[in-house]
Amino acid sequence: MSSTLSGITLKGSAELVAEFFTFGINSILYQRGIYPPETFTRVSHYDMSLQLNTDPTLKNYLTNVASQLKEWLYKCTVQKLVLVITGLDKQEVLERWQFDIECDKTAKESSAPRNKSIKTIQDEIRSVIRQITATVTFLPLLETPCSFDLLIYTDKDVLVPDKWEECGPQIINNSEEVRLRSFTTSIHKVNSMVAYKKTDSI
């Protein structure tokens, strides 16, 4: 196989990373019980079994986010994506899943594919999603109904779509942080971590 067939371009990298976020966000929403399990359907991707939400409103929202994200990834203007989980009773931030995105901007000047196979990248993505699934073993139970928000940090001069709102960082007071695995396409690198509210010791 020639290196072109096994290599990765900026466009291909943007598509892979945006796809990861679709599956990653769904995985978090499923694992953390933000939506009832019956609103998810099982799909096979990255050689593993994953859950995708079937609620039309949520699907439409996540499709729009992924599409916008792909454009910003292609232009190398996105810095991080944060999924915030808030308890509805006290409107308190309980968890903050942060994905820092680094982009090698030299890929914008050169269209030559990078020498990294899609299979290797997908193997790395699979490890990250497995780790997201495993976090239920140490994250505190969410004992109250919760909602979620997605925050996307871009370069300052980026035009933001009309329907998107500016908002604060939504930090957790008194939090624990756990660094998760990262993956790289050789153009985009995604570092993951989760911060959660410390439970008060008895």
Give an overview of the whole structure.
The protein has four helices and seven strands, in the order H-H-E-E-H-E-E-H-E-E-E. Strand 3 (78-87) and strand 4 form a beta hairpin. The chain has 202 residues and is an alpha+beta fold. The strands form two sheets. The chain has a five-stranded antiparallel β-sheet with strand order 5-3-4-7-6. Strands 1-2 form a two-stranded antiparallel sheet. The chain has helices spanning 3-6, 10-31, 56-74, 118-134; strands at residues 40-45, 48-53, 78-87, 92-103, 146-154, 175-184, 188-197. Helix 2 packs parallel to helix 4. It is 31% helix and 31% strand. It has a single domain (3-197), classed as 2-Layer Sandwich (Cell Cycle, Spindle Assembly Checkpoint Protein, Chain A).
Compile the SSE list and pairings.
Blueprint: H1 3-6, H2 10-31, E1 40-45, E2 48-53, H3 56-74, E3 78-87, E4 92-103, H4 118-134, E5 146-154, E6 175-184, E7 188-197
Antiparallel strand pairs: 1-2, 3-4, 3-5, 4-7, 6-7
Low-confidence stretches: none
The secondary structure category is alpha+beta
Would you state the CATH class?
Alpha Beta
Proportion of beta-strand residues:
25-35%
The biggest beta sheet, please? 5 strands, antiparallel
Features:
202 residues; alpha+beta; Cell Cycle, Spindle Assembly Checkpoint Protein, Chain A; 5-stranded antiparallel sheet; two-stranded antiparallel sheet
